[in-house]
Amino acid sequence: MENQISDRNFKFLQVVIRVSNLENSINFYQNILGFRILRQSEHRDARFTLVVLGYGQEGHCTTLELIYNWDVQEPYSLGTVFSHIAIGVNNLYSFCDNLVEHKIKITRPPGPTKQGGNNIIAFIEDPDGYRIELIENKP
Questions:
Q1: pTM of the predicted model, to two decimals?
Q2: Looking at residue 79, what is its pLDDT?
Q3: pLDDT of the residue at 9
Q4: DSSP string, 58-95
Q5: Which of 26, 46, 48, 64 has the smallest count of CB within 10 Å of its CB?
């Protein structure tokens, strides 16, 4: 590829999503998917709350940032450009059984990928309808 940028010190830092109910979203990501709250701040002038979640220390892992805009009344339109985020889990079948008990919406039950290969995947939705692919961790 021509005209490549020479500095290769890139790092994938974050994914940011807007949420309609901050408490429900924090509960989902923290208690269902095991994220930890790394930082939370309110921005009164701009009228939003930011919650940074991750599986490690901020700056050392990719984070998920939840933005809750205080004045938005209508649900966000998810559109067709965003597909999903993916999270690796152990024992996917058992994990999905647990999700059913917590009434989490599973849109694609766990099983092998349809394209072949040996990946086991499932899809779920968060409280705002964002799709999350669960991929079974390989031993």
A1: 0.85
A2: 86
A3: 66
A4: BTTB-EEEEEEETT--SPPP-TTT---EEEEESSHHHH
A5: 46
Hey, which residues are catalytic here? 133
Q: Which of 4-13, 90-99, 103-112, 125-134 has the lowest mean pLDDT?
A: 4-13
Q: pLDDT of 76-87, one tens digit each?
A: 888 888 899 999
Amino acid occupying residue 119: N
* 107 close to 125: Cβ distance less than 8 angstroms: yes
CB atoms within 10 A of CB 38: 18
CA distance 49 to 41: 6
| Ramachandran area for residue 46 (φ above 0: left; ψ -120 to 50: alpha; else beta) | alpha
- Report the C-alpha gap between 41 and 50 in whole angstroms: 5
Three-state secondary structure readout of 13-68: CEEEEECCCHHHHHHHHHHHCCCEEEEEEEECCCCEEEEEEECCCECCECEEEEEE
How far apart are the C-alpha atoms of 71 and 74, rounded to whole Å?
Answer: 9
Nearest to 41 by CA among 12, 61, 68: 68
Q: Could you give the CA distance from residue 120 to residue 113 in angstroms, rounded to a whole number? A: 6
